[in-house]
Design a protein that fits this description.
Blueprint (H helix, E strand, L loop, with lengths): L1 H4 L3 H11 L17 H11 L13 E5 L3 E3 L7 H7 L4 E3 L6 E2 L2 H10 L4 E8 L4 E7 L8 E2 L5 E5 H5 L1 H11 L10 H12 L4 E3 L9 E3 L2 E2 L12 H12 L1 H4 L9
Parallel strand pairs: 3-9
Antiparallel strand pairs: 1-8, 2-10, 3-8, 4-7, 5-6, 10-11
Helix pairs in contact: 3-8, 5-7
């Protein structure tokens, strides 16, 4: 309620219209506006607000892992140390995962990032980083493949830059608790436009971490967990694959 009260009149009007109410007093985390407020809040937080959050202001690097992501074995090498040593801006466990393709979103990206868009976004499998072709013509906008958001390492200072954070805020616009940009779009656009050569793929840089997420390892569709479900897999394989954690980490409810 405090956040709603602090909104500008324009933002508040748009938000209430999306929630189909005239007064926000009865809105809760579980209200639908039109999708659940709690989910939309975390989406906006991890896409736009997180980069300037006071709790992170003393930190330069962040390893993000979704709460439904689980290491399935020890990491033989430290991906964060490698990332820092190689001066990356983002290092991701999987690419691509979906794409931005709606026309209005692509036009908003173009306008929010100084009339710039990136096409032909793909992995350079020889050098292990993203590559793209930049265009400054709105007629050239094209679909953008996205970095998988469940696990990545980021240089927080890169995402705190005015040209990045201001672009993300422009993309959000007057919308409060919206999923545009979502977290995948938010980490992908700046990296692709400003530093593709510093946007690193973990596997192509020697990191086969086997992080479990949504029934797969490292987001790879051809690497499905057997048995399905992390609780079942942990019960069956933890003592062999991760003996140092097998007895200390009790997993009973993970999907």
């Amino acid at each position: 309620q405090e956040e709603i009260a602090a909104l500008s009149p324009a933002k508040r009007e748009i938000f209430l219209e999306r929630c189909n109410v005239t007064n926000p007093v009865n809105l809760t985390w579980w209200s639908n506006c039109p999708t659940r407020v709690a989910y939309n809040w975390q989406a906006e937080f991890r896409s736009v607000r997180i980069w300037e959050h006071p709790a992170l202001e003393e930190y330069k690097y962040m390893l993000w892992l979704d709460s439904d992501g689980f290491p399935s074995r020890p990491w033989e090498k430290d991906p964060v140390a490698y990332f820092i040593e190689n001066k990356g801006v983002i290092m991701f466990d999987n690419f691509p995962q979906g794409q931005a393709r709606e026309g209005h979103i692509l036009k908003q990206i173009f306008k929010s990032f100084n009339d710039t868009t990136a096409c032909n976004v793909k992995l350079n499998k020889t050098k292990g980083h993203l590559q793209r072709t930049l265009f400054h013509d709105e007629k050239q906008i094209c679909n953008m493949p996205l970095i998988h958001g469940f696990m990545h390492i980021t240089d927080l200072d890169f995402y705190r830059q005015p040209k990045v954070i201001n672009g993300l805020k422009k993309l959000l616009g007057n919308c409060f608790l919206c999923r545009s940009p979502d977290d995948q779009l938010a980490v992908t656009i700046p990296a692709v436009i400003y530093a593709p050569e510093k946007s690193l793929d973990m596997r192509l840089h020697g990191f086969d971490l086997k992080v479990y997420h949504n029934m797969h390892f490292d987001g790879k569709r051809n690497e499905k967990s057997k048995p399905p479900g992390f609780a079942r897999r942990w019960a069956e394989f933890a003592s062999k694959d991760f003996p140092s954690a097998a007895n200390g980490c009790k997993v009973t409810q993970a999907m």
